[in-house]
Amino acid sequence: MAVAPALSVVVPIFNEVESLPILVQKVRDALEGQREWELLLVDDGSTDGTRDLMMALADDDPRVRPLYLARNYGQTTAMQAGFDHALGAVVVSMDGDLQNDPADIPRLVEKLDEGYDLVTGYRLNRKDRLLTRKIPSWFANRIIRFLTGVPIRDNGCSLKAYRRELVRRFHLYSDMHRFIPAIAVATAGARVAEIPVRHHARQHGESKYGLSRTWKVLSDLLVIKSIRSFRERPLLLFGLLSMVALSLSGAFAVRSLITVFVYGRTIFIFPSVTVILFGLTVYLVMLGLLAEAALFHGRRGIRTLSPLVATRSGNAYSVREDG
């Protein structure tokens, strides 16, 4: 029976036939003399010959494991597929376009061994277009830090190292690979650190990302914010929504009374909306109570996580239990 590798490197690939051989060789060079490793190349429905090349590379080196998705699902799904099949106690994710440097992998793993659950890189001297990539990324990172409370400066950097126990708790979809640190903290109380990594200009092919993904990222951020804020107290979310509905119901009720007693007219739309909004208020409260009951039963026998705070030490941000 083959021994499981200590390190798994997960790389989503989409139409990177020119970059792939260079990437595999760079990973070999970076991990030469390191712990036993495997390289999972996850093909996300490539159409340029990447699949055949992945198979040839796997034939030449048994440490290279190709995974093939039926069609193009997106980077997040490809990354999750790699996580699901990774065998190593430590899992590293990175892009397949040669902009991440595999030489930084040992540094990420070394930092992880200090007791962290997740170590993420932030790109120094980023080699991307200013208007379409760097400026939107600058704003996005600050919005994400503000809304999630997790002070990561470069959420878009795919070069990260994880403990396998943490990766097994991920269920990523949409574009949520951008929010992995926030998800890890919100759902698993992960200890997170950040270190600087190198970044290179794209040498082959074209970028698959641009401003068109902005709205999708914002919608995913709303989901993450909801998980972060209301995962342990869903009644608060439904309670806030019910207060809004009740306030609107009261406003329409007052408007109905003014219409009848001041103007001497009856406009049925106002009392009708009042009743509908009041019904919505009751419905939201009931949903909140049901969510709390479900959460209570799910918690039975499971220790509740302590509150988390983020602290900074040099270039690392760690998340620890408060008190």
SSE inventory with pairings:
Blueprint: E1 7-13, H1 20-30, E2 37-43, H2 50-60, E3 64-68, H3 75-85, E4 90-93, H4 105-112, E5 118-123, H5 130-148, E6 160-163, H6 164-167, H7 180-188, E7 192-197, H8 214-230, H9 234-261, H10 269-299, E8 308-313, E9 316-321
Parallel strand pairs: 1-2, 1-4, 2-3, 5-7
Antiparallel strand pairs: 4-6, 5-6, 8-9
Helix pairs in contact: 7-8, 9-10
Q: How would a crystallographer describe the biggest sheet? A: 7 strands, mixed
Number of helices: 10
Unreliable segments (pLDDT under 50, ≥5 consecutive)? 301-323
CATH level 1 class label of the largest domain: Alpha Beta
Helix content: 40-55%
Query: How many domains make up the coordinates?
Result: 2
- The residue-averaged pLDDT reads 83
Q: Give helix and strand order, one letter per element, not per position.
A: EHEHEHEHEHEHHEHHHEE
CATH superfamily (homologous) name of the largest domain: Spore Coat Polysaccharide Biosynthesis Protein SpsA, Chain A
- Assign the structural class, choosing from mainly alpha, mainly beta, alpha/beta, alpha+beta, or little secondary structure: alpha/beta
Under CATH, the topology of the largest domain is which? Answer: Spore Coat Polysaccharide Biosynthesis Protein SpsA, Chain A
Q: Whole-Å distance between the termini?
A: 46 Å
- Radius of gyration over alpha carbons? 25 Å
Shape: elongated
Strand order of the largest sheet: 3-2-1-4-6-5-7
- What percent strand? 15-25%
- The total count of strands amounts to 9
**CATH architectural group of the largest domain:** Alpha-Beta Complex
